[in-house]
Write a structure and sequence with these properties.
Elements (H helix, E strand, L loop, with lengths): L5 H13 L3 H4 L1 H15 L7 E5 L5 H7 L15 E6 L2 H4 L13 E6 L12 E7 L8 H11 E12 L5 H15 L12 H10 L3 E14 L2 H11 L14 H15 L6 E13 L18 H6 L18
Parallel strand pairs: 1-2, 1-4, 2-3, 4-5
Antiparallel strand pairs: 5-7, 6-7
Length: about 325
């Protein structure tokens, strides 16, 4: 079942990236790219062949180029070749300030849809994705494709917007539409909840899944400026069932309700962006494996009671307790 208008989202992003002031609106993607590459730097491994999935804007490439690999080769994470895969040609373009002939890595743009990856199995050591996955219709299928494209013990490092994103705008629009038009329709796109992301990684075949969350609060002069910025980012709603036309009165009512419910003392209004970070590893025999079911030697009841027998180093599974 399709939820998002992928063709419409492509048009939105292409239009946004063609605007001369696009960089002024792309601050959220820039900040999350920095945090994403920081997480990559925490992994003491090198990933010579990398794929940027859903590439849109220069930020991930810029952050990778800004850091040298552990062995002195490539950029952050030891990346020597970065394939940038995205749906808009404009979003794949890199300004000269973010990539030059002296760059530590080779960058290859590929125009392709994230829902249908054109890569052979086991092609990459790393797949990195910055604020793109929340617009994919069949996310489980896309994640399975990503897992298949990774070499054994390769890693997926991704960020996407979570379900609490723009919760204030969602509520204000619903109340305004109910008041002015006697009903409600979806305006803010749905997103995955944090609790589902670990299961999503496991279902796609990833091992050792890790999920963490950042909540970023951005203040705007009013709700109408927030909507302008979302359009400038290429992050406007792309739900297939969205209304094509909403009256000016409804938008003005939504802005007034937003101000009434969430306005700060200085007159600004906050907008919540919940960013979910996911790390998953392509399976490999060297990774820690769970013990077989029933192989445990100590029950949880014994642990709760503190009734644990003294054990030595005989491999019997006993646990010693220090008094």
């Amino acid at each position: 079942m399709n939820i998002f208008d992928r063709a419409g989202k492509k048009r939105q992003r292409a239009r946004a990236s063609l605007a001369s002031n696009w960089p002024e609106y792309d601050y959220l993607r820039a900040e999350v790219a920095k945090r994403l590459v920081d997480r990559l730097e925490d992994i003491m491994r090198e990933f010579p062949e990398a794929l940027e999935l859903g590439a849109y804007g220069p930020h991930v490439a810029k952050e990778i180029c800004a850091v040298q690999g552990l062995s002195g080769k490539g950029g952050a994470g030891g990346i020597e070749r970065l394939v940038r895969c995205g749906v808009t040609e404009q979003g794949l373009l890199l300004p000269s300030s973010s990539h030059s002939s002296s760059s530590p890595l080779k960058i290859l743009p590929v125009l392709a849809d994230e829902e249908h990856l054109p890569f052979s199995p086991q092609s990459f050591d790393l797949i990195i994705s910055n604020l793109s996955l929340h617009w994919i219709n069949d996310l489980p299928h896309a994640m399975r494709q990503a897992c298949q494209a990774l070499k054994p013990d390769g890693v997926l490092l991704a960020s996407m917007l979570g379900g609490n994103t723009l919760k204030e705008l969602r509520i204000a629009l619903q109340l305004a539409e109910q008041e002015r038009e006697g009903g409600i329709s979806p305006h803010v796109s749905p997103a995955a909840h944090v609790a589902d992301c670990g299961a999503l990684l496991q279902a796609a075949g990833f091992a050792l899944p890790t999920v963490d969350v950042d909540t970023l609060i951005v203040n705007f002069p009013d709700a109408l400026v927030l909507m302008e910025h979302l359009q400038g980012m290429g992050e406007s709603s792309a739900i297939l069932t969205r209304r094509q036309h909403v009256s000016r009165e409804t938008f003005l009512a939504a802005a007034a309700i937003y101000q009434e419910l969430y306005g700060e003392n200085d007159g600004s209004v906050p907008a919540t962006f919940q960013v979910v970070y996911m790390i998953g590893w392509a399976p490999h025999e060297s990774q820690p494996q769970p013990k077989k079911r029933g192989s445990g030697k100590v029950s949880l009841k014994m642990l709760q009671k503190g009734d644990i027998s003294e054990g030595g180093n005989d491999g019997s599974g006993g646990c010693s307790r220090h008094k």
